[in-house]
Design goal:
Layout (H helix, E strand, L loop, with lengths): L2 H16 L5 E8 L4 E4 L15 H9 L4 E9 L7 E2 L4 H7 L7 E4 L7 E4 H4 L10 H5 L2
Parallel strand pairs: 3-5
Antiparallel strand pairs: 1-2, 1-3, 3-4, 5-6
């Protein structure tokens, strides 16, 4: 199974397990070692404290001192709805950029097909281009 399909399936499996009915959403990420990390958005009482579905996997990658190579965020409206791929929000794009412009992220695409693009392709005019690569990424 290719990485893209593996991550999509991992996210769907987590949604079906964690949210058997109603709304559900999950993220899945692949590390440079080939490990798949999954996460969900925490349920909170105050909407101002909400976090994206990807945050748990991002934090896990930092904890493990590994790099993220691919990321996907999947949601569904209820248990009878089809799954949707969500392009990472701007904040999660910034969080994923820690691992460089080559991180592959799944994006919302026509006919809800799974499509990945690099952060470089998603953000061709990103603010970091104003600085030398080595200053931003330490390379």
């Amino acid at each position: 199974m290719i990485v893209m399909d593996m991550l999509y399936e991992a996210a769907i499996q987590l949604i079906q397990k964690r949210y058997p009915s109603g709304w559900g959403g999950a993220a899945a990420m692949r590390t440079s070692e080939g490990v798949v990390l999954t996460s969900v958005a925490p349920e909170v009482l105050n909407a101002a404290t909400e976090l994206c579905m990807e945050v748990g996997s991002i934090l896990e990658a930092h904890k493990l001192q590994t790099s993220v190579t691919h990321s996907i965020c999947v949601t569904r409206d209820d248990e009878n709805s089809s799954f949707k791929v969500l392009t990472p929000c701007g904040i999660c794009q910034e969080r994923l950029l820690y691992w460089g412009r080559d991180v592959q992220v799944a994006v919302t695409h026509e006919e809800n097909k799974v499509k990945y693009v690099s952060l470089q392709e998603l953000q061709p005019f990103h603010w970091t281009h104003a600085y030398p690569e080595e200053e931003i990424f330490g390379k």
